[in-house]
Structure formats: structure tokens, C-alpha cells
């Protein structure tokens, strides 16, 4: 039996099998399930117990949302607050936690599979390739939500790291312009994954210069992850012996294996 508190559960990117075991177990036991119906797969709700109250939150404002959670916990019920992906990335959970804390309501965060990793998996790319890129930037283009001054997209693009853009599909022309201004090439590879892990998933492999046209051709203007990275180059699969990890190098010694001498 679950403790009477709020469980902020990451539902994963869409595929109901990509929720964690812990997250699914909470859905099976929760007295109240409050889920983001605009993004979370409804199939996940099928595991709810027969007497659970299942509520959709897309039409609720913040005050209505937290009032529901606080009231139910105060009455001794466990509440599963279900978010898409992982709650810690663009999950808008800070304001919810603030209300819960002020009301003296306990909460626990259950991590989930982020859409960025589902997108990378769908595109069959590794975001961190040795000697090519070892840093992943998770960010968004500036739209109605302003960016902090030191996190302007052009400044981040200057690092030439793997860059994964959330919530940016309507601002692609601006994205392309800022990356080109930061020294990226029109021929640099880009992957766009629409609704990663859902049945209608689309994977579009293109270049920075062709990005806007490719997305327009596929009708992609929402719910897509844009990955701009030299690691997205399919030619890397053909370049044997390049950009390989030391972990599996037979001459490399680590805590579990002694490397072989290069001289035999």
C-alpha cells in the first residue's frame, strides 16, 4: 500500500513499455492518478486499480492541479501525478512542489525516460562520440518563454556539442540562423524525431541547411525533438577504427581488465 503523498511520475516518451517498473507499480497502487492527457499515453492508465480515481490535467490550471493533489493527500489518499518523459526536464514541477511544500504535503519524484533519449534511440545515434563530441546540451529556442541572458542559443551553439532542442519546432528558421552564425555548416547533420516511441513516430535525417524544408515536407511543427550533432552523421558507421571508446580497446587497462601489450 502506498503512503499518502504525491508521487511525481515520469511516464516516459510515449511507448507504454518505456515507463520504469517503479513508475508502473505506483500507477497500479495509487488512489488518485492525475495525468497530462495531452502528452501521456492513455494506455498507461489501464493498470490503475478498479477503485482509483483517474483525472486528466490538461484542462486544469496550476491552482486547480495542486488543490486536487493537496486535498486528496490530506484525506489520506496516495496521488500519482504523471508527467510525460522525465519530470526534471521541462516538467514544470518546481511550482507544483512549491505549493506542496507550503501545504506540508510530502512528495517523491520518480524519474522517467526522456524524449531526448527516445529520439536518439529511434535515430540510432550515440550522442557522445569519443574525440568528436563529449557534451550534450539540452535546451530550447527562445520563444514566449525568455531564455537567461547567458543561455542564448547562439552562445550554446558556439560549443559545437551535441545539441538537443525541446519545444523549438515552430522556431526552426531562427535555430538554423543562430547555429550558422555560431560557425556550424549547412552540411552538418541534423535528426528530427516526431513523437518518439509512439506508433506514428517519424525520423527525419537531414542537414542544417535543409532542416526547415525537410520538416515542412513532413508536416512536423510540434511534438518533435531536434538533434543537431556531428554524431548524427551516418558516415560514422563506415569509418572503422575512428572515434572508438578506450573502454573496449584491447591495449587499455582498467579496473576489470588488464590491457594487452601493443608489442605483443
From TrEMBL:
Known EC number: 2.1.1.133
Q: In which pathway does it act?
A: Cofactor biosynthesis; adenosylcobalamin biosynthesis
Q: Where are the transmembrane segments?
A: none
In the UniProt record, the signal sequence range is none
Q: Name one GO molecular function term.
A: precorrin-4 C11-methyltransferase activity
What are the protein's UniProt keywords?
Cobalamin biosynthesis, Methyltransferase, S-adenosyl-L-methionine, Transferase
Which InterPro entries does this UniProt record tie to the protein? 4pyrrol_Mease, 4pyrrol_Methylase_sf, 4pyrrole_Mease_sub1, 4pyrrole_Mease_sub2, Cbl_synth_CobM/CibF, Siro_Cobalamin_biosynth, Uropor_MeTrfase_CS
Return the Pfam families for the record: TP_methylase (PF00590)
Q: Which NCBIfam families match?
A: cobM_cbiF
List the PANTHER family hit by this protein, alphabetically: COBALT-PRECORRIN-4 C(11)-METHYLTRANSFERASE (PTHR45790:SF4), SIROHEME SYNTHASE-RELATED (PTHR45790)
The name on file for this protein is Precorrin-4 C(11)-methyltransferase
Encoding gene, per UniProt annotation? cobM
Amino acid at each position: 500500500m502506498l503512503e499518502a503523498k504525491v508521487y511525481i511520475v515520469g511516464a516516459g516518451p510515449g511507448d507504454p513499455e518505456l515507463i520504469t517498473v517503479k513508475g508502473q507499480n505506483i500507477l497500479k497502487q495509487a488512489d488518485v492518478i492525475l495525468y497530462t492527457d495531452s502528452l501521456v499515453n492513455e494506455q498507461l492508465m489501464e493498470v490503475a486499480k478498479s477503485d482509483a480515481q483517474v483525472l486528466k490535467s490538461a484542462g486544469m490550471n496550476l491552482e486547480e492541479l495542486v488543490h486536487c493533489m493537496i486535498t486528496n493527500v490530506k484525506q489520506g489518499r496516495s496521488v500519482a501525478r504523471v508527467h510525460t518523459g522525465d519530470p526534471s526536464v521541462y516538467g514544470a514541477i518546481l511550482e507544483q512542489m512549491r505549493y506542496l511544500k507550503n501545504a506540508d504535503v510530502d512528495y517523491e519524484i520518480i524519474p522517467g525516460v526522456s524524449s531526448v533519449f527516445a529520439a536518439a534511440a529511434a535515430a540510432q545515434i550515440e550522442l557522445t562520440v569519443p574525440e568528436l563530441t563529449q557534451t550534450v546540451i539540452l535546451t530550447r529556442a527562445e520563444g514566449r518563454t525568455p531564455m537567461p541572458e547567458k543561455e542564448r542559443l547562439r552562445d550554446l551553439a558556439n560549443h559545437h556539442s551535441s545539441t538537443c532542442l525541446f519545444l523549438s519546432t515552430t522556431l526552426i528558421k531562427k535555430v538554423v540562423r543562430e547555429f550558422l552564425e555560431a560557425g556550424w555548416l549547412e552540411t552538418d547533420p541534423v535528426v528530427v524525431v516526431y513523437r518518439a516511441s509512439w506508433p506514428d513516430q517519424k525520423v527525419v535525417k537531414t542537414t542544417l541547411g535543409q532542416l526547415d524544408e525537410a520538416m515542412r515536407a513532413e508536416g512536423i511543427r510540434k511534438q518533435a525533438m531536434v538533434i543537431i550533432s556531428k554524431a548524427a552523421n551516418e558516415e560514422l558507421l563506415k569509418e572503422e577504427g575512428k572515434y572508438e571508446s578506450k573502454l573496449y580497446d584491447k591495449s587499455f587497462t582498467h579496473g576489470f581488465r588488464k590491457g594487452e601489450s601493443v608489442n605483443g
